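A quick aside before the break. I want you to see a complete sequence-to-structure record at least once, exactly as it would be stored in a machine-readable document. Don't worry about memorizing anything.
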Amino acid sequence: MMTRNLPIIAVATAPGKAGVGVIRISGSKLNTITHALFKKSLEPRKANVLTLRDASGEAIDQLLAIYFSAPASFTGEDVLELQCHGGPQLLELVMKRCLELGKGDGLVIAQPGEFTLRAYLNDKIDLAQAEAIADLIDAQSEAAVLGAARSLQGAFSDDINELIEEITQLRILVESTLDFPEEEIEFLESAQARQRLQSVVAKLATLRQGAKQGKILRDGIQLVLAGAPNVGKSSLLNRLAGEEVAIVTSIAGTTRDRVKESVSIDGVPMHIIDTAGLRATSDEVEAKGIERSWEAIRLADIVIFLQDSHDPDPAEDALRAQILCAIPPKCPVLEVGNKLDLLDSGVRNDSNSQFLYISAKTGEGVDALKAKILEMVGWGGTQEGAILARRRHLDCLERAADHLDKSEKFAENGNISLELFAEELRLAQDQLGQITGKLLPDDLLGKIFSQFCIGK
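That is the input. The structure line, written in tokens, reads:
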């Protein structure tokens, strides 16, 4: 996928019936393929109404053909776009005819993400923008659409490149002084190296916070409702979802497998998993559901440990300890006491507490619960100016911050080492470069683009 130079073809529109279906061809020097299809050359960037015919001369479809000459195209190569009528069988016939007539030029079906990969390899977009294309297609909320669009326009890349440039200028100053070790302290003071580094660190911290918000918008929050049987997990899921998506009865063990529902809380996607009640059981089916519940807890972004505040179970302390051992690092656990409607009226929530009282039955305290969930996962409360980010981006930003932190230590008074200072700057710069694809291993690049849909 990384090295083939053959022309490629794919349907660029979604499967199924539609008014229009688009087929895209990309490659170097597509004039011969274009002439084979329509017996004429096409003027670049001009729409042409043409008829594509089969081998016997019968019309397959009257379509709109637009030719883009390299490098002024999405991929940076010659691109031919065919806008056909959108029937699946018709598109298959058009594809088949194109492959027949393009066989001599090596025309092949594109692999997933290959059009976008070629755009990246031909410097039409960087890697962060390429990933934003997939995110824009997959976006499931208005905020996610706007965030992906900003990344596609280069907002995220511009911030990364600005940081890389500032680190580059600082490296130039540092490395130009390495031959004069006796002047290290004077250099750091005269060039304001520490102040410039602190500025980079502060900008990176701001970018990391924004990227974290963007990842929440892109992936949503994996929220797991855990607890003993019959504490009201299914009732809470129904309350958060706004409809009855889980069966609720007074019989312990009613939920025997995971129930997942996606909702939006203040515009933030939330994937809520109602788990089977955690207890010892001899029921084989329920035991399998409990096993899956523990699996969901291990993959959670936040766990709500729901308890019956009206009739507490003495075994809950042991269950809480089990959950704390099972959850991933840094995953917050919010303890919630259900059945507030059965308690004395004097019970009230403290906004600073890590324990909330709610009534899944009446809805009392649920708004406070929603706000607490968003607070604990790190949501900043605003979608304005947000950009989408991936786990890969956050990891690179975190490693870059670690290297900058080490470089600060090497620049402290009494612990000055310009060689190590410069090396940590270089490593931080490399991590940032991996986000835009300037410094990225080929195997990782192939993995990223293989996740795209065919035709992009």
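Two observations worth writing down. The chain has three domains: 8-124, 130-216+388-449, 220-376. The longest helix spans residues 193-219. We'll return to this after the break.
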